Amino acid sequence: MRYEYVTGNIAVAEASMTAGLKFYAGYPITPSSDIFEYLARELPKRGGHVVQFEDEIASINAAIGASWTCAKSMTATSGPGFSLMLEALSLAVITETPLVVVYVMRTGPSTGVPTRSGQYDVLQATYGFHGGLVIPVLAPSTPQEAYDLTIRAFNVSEELRTPAILLSDAVVAHTYGKVAIRERGEVEVVDRAKPSVPPESYRPYDPLDGIAPPMACFGEGYNVLVESLTHDEKGYYAPRTDAQRRLMWRLYRKVVESAERLFDYSAAYLDDCEFALVSYGPTALSARVAAKLLREEGYRACLVKLRTLFPLYEKGVRELLRGVGKVFVVENNVGLYFRELRGVLRDKEVISVPLIDLDVPPPQEIAGVVKEWL
C-alpha cells in the first residue's frame, strides 16, 4: 500500500486498475476526461487497452463487447454522454454484462456548466434506461471513497453480472486528497463466476443455485449467446409471459435482494439525535459541518451520509433512523433523492433541503434552512 495525494478522478483510475480493469473505452467529456487521459498512459503498462471512440454510444457498446471476452471493462462520462449511453446500458442489463460506468455529474441539463458541480442526475443513474429495473449506484464524497467505491463497483458488477454506476461529480473529481492506494493482493477483488459444467450442458442464463448465471466468454468453447430479446435460460428468444416473468423478476431480485449486503453509510452524532440530516456525495461533507454548527447552538442534530444510493435498503434506512423525529434530505439539486426517502420513511416528517450551488452548498446555508423549518 502507498499513499498519494491525488484527485478523485485519478483515484478512480488507480482503483479500476487495482480491480483488474483490462479495457477502457471512452470519449472525452468534462469533468471526467482526466480519468481517460490517466488510463491512456497507465493502463497499457499493466497489460490493458484504452481506446477512444467516436462518441459515447460506441464507447459503451465497445465496453460491453470487451466484457464478453472476459476483460473487465469501464467507461466514464458526464450527463450528456450518459444520456447517449442509455440504450446500450439497457442492453447490458438484459444480457447481464458486467460493466462499470463512472458518471461524473456536472451542473444542470443539456450542457449546463461543464466545469462545475451538481447532483441533478441521481435518479437518471439508475432509472434512466428503459426496462424498469434497478442497477447499483455508489456515491463517493472524497477521493478516498472514490477509490474504495470504484473497487466495490467492479466487485458488485462481477458478482451480480450487472452494470454498476459510480456516481461522482465535479467536486469529487477535481478535489485533491490523501488516498491509500493498494495492490491487487491487498484488497478484495471479485471475479465473475465461471461455468462448472461441460459446454454441452451449459445454459447461458441459468443462475443454478447462485445469484447470477455463471458467465462463459467468447473463445472458451461454450455456446455464448448475447441475447437482447426476452430469452429463456438457454438464451433463446422466448416471447412468452412465463419467460418474461421469470427473466424480469430474476433481473430485478438479484439486485434488490442484495440491498442489505450493498448498504453502505457513515454517520455522526447518531446516538444523541432528535433530527437527522441525510445526504450523499460531497454535499454530505457540508451537511456534516452543518450538523456540528447546529449542535453548537443546542440542537440535537446528526448526519447520515449514504454511499449506496441504489438499491435502496429500505429496512436498513428505517432502522438507522428509528429514533429520529424529522429527517432533512440535503441535496445539490431540486430535491430528487428526497422523493426516494419520503416513500421509505412514511412514519416520519421528511423535509427536502434542495440547495442549488455550483460547487457545494455552504454549511451555514444548510444550517440556516434547517433552523427555519424548526
How is this structure best summarized?
The protein has 374 residues and is of the alpha/beta class. It has helices at 8-18, 33-42, 56-67, 79-94, 124-127, 143-160, 170-174, 241-256, 259-262, 281-296, 314-320, 337-344, 363-373; strands at residues 2-7, 23-26, 49-52, 73-77, 99-105, 137-138, 163-169, 176-181, 265-268, 275-280, 301-306, 308-310, 326-331, 349-354. The strands form 3 sheets. It has a 7-stranded mixed β-sheet, sandwiched between helices. Strands 9-11-10-13-14 form a 5-stranded mixed β-sheet, with helices on both faces.
Task: Lay out the secondary structure.
Blueprint: E1 2-7, H1 8-18, E2 23-26, H2 33-42, E3 49-52, H3 56-67, E4 73-77, H4 79-94, E5 99-105, H5 124-127, E6 137-138, H6 143-160, E7 163-169, H7 170-174, E8 176-181, H8 241-256, H9 259-262, E9 265-268, E10 275-280, H10 281-296, E11 301-306, E12 308-310, H11 314-320, E13 326-331, H12 337-344, E14 349-354, H13 363-373
Parallel strand pairs: 2-3, 2-4, 4-5, 5-7, 6-7, 10-11, 10-13, 13-14
Antiparallel strand pairs: 1-8, 6-12, 9-11
Helix pairs in contact: 1-2, 1-6, 3-4, 10-13
Give structural notes.
It is a single chain. This protein has two domains: 2-186, Thiamin diphosphate (ThDP)-binding fold, Pyr/PP domains (Rossmann fold, 3-Layer(aba) Sandwich), CATH 3.40.50; 265-373, Rossmann fold (3-Layer(aba) Sandwich), CATH 3.40.50.920. Helices cover 37% and strands 19% of the residues. It is built from 13 helices and 14 strands. The protein starts with a strand and ends with a helix.
